[in-house]
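[scheduler] slot 2 assigned
[scheduler] job type: sequence-to-structure, two independent chains
[scheduler] chain ordering preserved from manifest
[runner] begin chain α
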Amino acid sequence: MIKITDLTKTYGSKTALNDVNLTIENGQIFGLLGHNGAGKSTTIKCLTSIIEPTSGSIAFDDQSLPEHRQEIKEKISYVPDTPDLFLQLSASEYWNLMASAYNVDPKHLTERLKELTDLFEMTQVSDETLSEFSHGMRQKVIIIGALLAEPEIWILDEPLQGLDPQAAFDLKELIKSYAQKGNTVIFSTHDLATAQQLCDQIAILKTGKLVYNGSVADLLANYPGDSLEQVYLQLVGRHTNDNELINELTAGDSAHD
């Protein structure tokens, strides 16, 4: 279980997270939703020890993250929000680097790499450098590297960005099967349909504050007749029936016709 208590992160006068409290059970698929700048990536970077919170605490199975950082980091694989990393390496070199970092058994590595590279259709390009790849292909390389060690916790920041429909489908199936084995998956997304399809629990953030935490079904039950998109926009965005700006823009376009 992951317990986030009163998590706050400030950058000068800006508050990126404001007293966020979350509990993520083992084996859950947990989605972080919110507009750009809502605090999703900041939460993820605190969980993965990339940044330190200003105040509050994070514990994994009752172990404090600051006190057991290395032990906890060994249980986590992370897919960042950009795959533009280690561009001088070939795909194979990157995967070997990840395998070495997690002490993956060489025999298991061979089997796991074949399974994942076949799935994501990356076998034939494994010797090419990441700098030669498209955004989507780089994303596949990072995802494969994150799954080599089969960690207990998989944390992904906007993992579907840039993936083609087949790769996105395969990743979602991997997430489901991964959680079914008792592992925990935490991911951020702007894709409401994906969140509704995959997540056991979601957290919706707005300007660093938690505005909802629970299941999609429970959320929709509080707004009979509304879609998840409509509910989401009522919580964090401009209401769906607020068309003043849209009407102004449309009128402006018409005036130029």
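[runner] end chain α
[runner] begin chain β
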Amino acid sequence: MIKPKEIHIVFNELSGSGKGQLICQTLVKEVKEKKLSFSLHKSCYAGHTVKIVAELVQELNALLSSATAILLIVGGDGTLHEALLGLGETYKHIPLAYIPAGSGNDFAKGLGISKNTSKALEQILSVKTPREVNVIQFKENNKKQIRYAVNNVGVGFDASTVKQANQSTVKARLNRYHLGSLTYLISVITVLSQQKAFPIEVVTDHQKLSFPKAFLVTVNNHPYFGGGIRISPKASPYDNKVDLIVLEKSSVFKIIWLFLLLLADGHHLKHKDVHYIKTENLRLYSAVREEVQADGELLGYRTIDLQLSSSSRYFWF
């Protein structure tokens, strides 16, 4: 059992439409009851967590590396995504603790981290050493920039749905009733008839494939996306591989049928219009502009040239 001298809590109070602030208040109460020293660092805007984490790890590298201090992230998958960017490659050896406070919390579900604040804190404090976990590392070749994703990287329908969900006016209302995952399903229905087919090339260590009518392209680190939808049931954050799913454009009725199969625990992978690949290294290329997202964070409407693989990070849980 670890006994840190101080816990540095980076929290996004806006995550989960305000749930982050409430969870942080609960967490502070728990930490005080355990008589643990702590400090609070509030993330106030997009990209702020990157800056906070980068500054903390530079200042406290030795303490965080030895578990004398712990860096604890409170927020949604997007907040955790930014925390990884703050660590970068230089400080990737520093373990993170994480308490989910977002709408979807897919990473927590994929790793078995409790959504209950008290239980999640107990998970963190009860372990002796951090666990090695895979995340997706990807490079945008046309930008020469390395980024990370804890859940998935999506192109086309997936990213367009994320864009629609982020812009949804009902998201905040659903989050108040703990129904945030419904936002994604509503957005799926909205985007379903709007998304057009696009060409994409897939290159792995062993093959090169072309899909002239791609509709949904998602690279996954674990089974879940969109608030608990089990899109990639064979994916694992421990096998040093990434899992690719390509869904080709078909009729709206057939796509609806595929989503029903998806909800039926993995049967969609057997359909002829669904292509599944597990690999160590992956390149996605398309000269056609499409929406791209990573962990629900939009990367923009752009041509695609992505190099993806698995990379190790460390978590207390």
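[runner] end chain β
[qc] chain β: The chain has ten helices and 15 strands.
[scheduler] slot 2 released
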